[in-house]
Amino acid sequence: MIPRYQKIVFAALLHATVLRDAYHERQYDRAHHRLLKGEDASPTTAPTVVPEETATLMVANDADGSINAQQRSLPLPKDAEARARAILSRLLELYSSPGATHTLPASPRPIAQVFLFRPPLPAKTKSSGPDDTTLAVVNLTRSFADSHPSGIATESLTVDSICATLSANFPQITHVRFLVDGESRPTLAGHADLTRTYLIGEAASGTNP
Q: Domain limits at 46?
């Protein structure tokens, strides 16, 4: 017979999980509505007057299925969403460059937008804590998704490297969702599930430091 306290703990954990998933779905829908309204104030490319900063790109390697950190200097906007888009765009540009360790066809604009959502903190909370959750919604362009090679390994490496790169540069991001041209899409190219919420720890579980 299961002790009463264990039943209470299980019920509490189940309730917390349901609330968390509902929150992520609500923020995912908000990102979709922002796209429909045309709410995208971030620049298409970082202005040339923006000073260069060092960003960490988590680069996939097709040879051994690893994801490894590379430091790159690039102009980064101050706005967090535009900053995330600039970093991810640079990551995906690497995959179409000569000598790429993870090879993808060139796409002029692989990332359309990145939206960041964070649950409201209590009024008396002065700073974020370890339990704070930030959801990133990455809106890929259809041209990028349609040209992506099909295969579970190559698609998973692309998704995992995007999630790992967001985590490396924005430690507050804990979950990632994907859109394609503002709409939900079942898979990236037939395999990697784009309907789920990726937990950063799960997405990057096979990476190398």
A: 4-120+131-203
d(CA 89, CA 110): 6
41-60, pLDDT tens digit by residue? 455 554 456 789 999 999 99
Tokens of 72: 């790159």
Which residues of the chain, if any, have pLDDT below 50? Answer: 5-7, 9-16, 18, 41, 46-47, 125-131, 204-209
Listed residue (101, 91, 88, 115) closest to 29, CA to CA? 115
- Would you say 162 and 140 are in contact if contact means Cβ atoms under 8 Å apart? no
Residue 164 domain-assigned (yes or no): yes
Residue 208 lies inside a defined structural domain of this protein: no
The answer to whether 75 and 51 are in contact (CB under 8 A) is yes
Report yes or no on 142 lying in a domain. Answer: yes
3-class SS string, the chain = CCCHHHHHHHHHHHHHHHHHHHHHHHHHHHHHHHHHHCCCCCCCCCCCCCCEEEEEEEEEECCCCEEEEEEEEEECCCCHHHHHHHHHHHHHHHCCCCCCCCCCCCCCCCEEEEEEECCCCCCCCCCCCCCCCEEEEEEECHHHHHHCCCCHHHHHHHHHHHHHHHHHHCCCEEEEEEEECCECCCECCCCCECCCCEEHHHHCCCCCC
Specify burial of residue 95 (Cβ count, 10 A radius: 0-12, 13-18, 19+).
buried
Q: How many domains does the chain have?
A: 1
